[in-house]
Amino acid sequence: MSPHAADSAHQPVDPAVHHAVHHAVDQARRLVAERFPDALGVVLAGSTAAGRATPTSDLDLAVLVEDGGDTRRETLRFEGRLVELFVHTRGGLAEIFAADLASRRGVMQRMYAEGLVLSDRTGAAARAKAFARAELHQGPAALDAATVETRRYVLTDALDDLADVTDPVERLAVAGTVLGTAADLLLDHHRAWTGGGKWLPRRLLEADPERGAALLNGHRLLCEHGDPEALLEAAYQVLALTGGPLREGYARTWHGAVDPLTPTTAPRR
């Protein structure tokens, strides 16, 4: 056991949180027994599986069903609690894993890898869990060189705008582009998973605590005080790490409706 894990084991547990977690897990088990008695396997993910549930936390359930069933997402309320269901066949789960790998987010992989197995009638949930852990450990494929170049060009252009723009609303809009594009580059540099919403800062801090925190703090300072300097400095550090600013000399051709800014991936290395 790591020192961190040992320390965590001796941390006092808030009785209210302990009760909320057990209540939520019990609710999840009742839902599974009622709605999915024949499921191949069910995994509980999210804050409840992580031991952070509150009385208002929702339940995130990945449900593996026999081939021939439906692969779908469904939101419902059970015993007053909001529930997000991710129901899939074996083939459907393989497709979701592939899509989450291509998007570089690994959402379903993380649900299985970090979730609590509630039922596993055939061992399929355990196998999916092991596969998900392996994919998370390996990480996403590298962005191809052309996509990295385009990201550098977009970030350079946004930083030029950020240094020049004076309208506060426009500055906030440009800052969002700077943060998102710099995050793409930094996470790709570390071959790390990305995320949307609240998961983006979490993934940044996991992948690079120093540079990720600098980006997030710079964005916060700009939003709170209108000062772009910290964000400019942090983003230029990311550019220096990933090939430097790119202005003149950038060129890209494409055909049809393909968006040159859409991320693509190179073979894993």
Q: How would you explain this protein's 3D organization?
A:
This protein is of the alpha+beta class. 55% of the residues lie in helices and 12% in strands. It is built from eleven helices and five strands. The chain has helices at residues 3-9, 15-35, 46-49, 90-102, 107-114, 124-138, 145-164, 168-189, 199-207, 209-225, 229-241, and strands at residues 41-45, 59-64, 72-78, 81-88, 116-120. Strands 3-4-2-1-5 form a five-stranded mixed β-sheet, with helices on both faces. The protein is globular. The two termini are 30 Å apart. Residues 1-10 have low confidence and may be disordered.
Salient structural properties:
alpha+beta, disordered N terminus, 55% helix, 269 residues, five-stranded mixed beta sheet
Name the helix and strand elements from N-terminus to C-terminus, one letter apiece: HHEHEEEHHEHHHHHH
General form: globular
Q: What structural class results from the helix and strand content?
A: alpha+beta
Q: Give the DSSP E fraction (strand runs of 2 or more residues).
A: 5-15%
Could you estimate the helical fraction of the residues in percent?
55-70%
Low-confidence stretches: 1-10
> Overall pLDDT, averaged?
89
How many distinct helices? 11
The profile of the biggest β sheet is: 5 strands, mixed
Number of strands: 5
Output the radius of gyration: 22 Å
**What gap, in angstroms, lies between the N and C termini?**
30 Å
Strand order, main sheet: write it out: 3-4-2-1-5
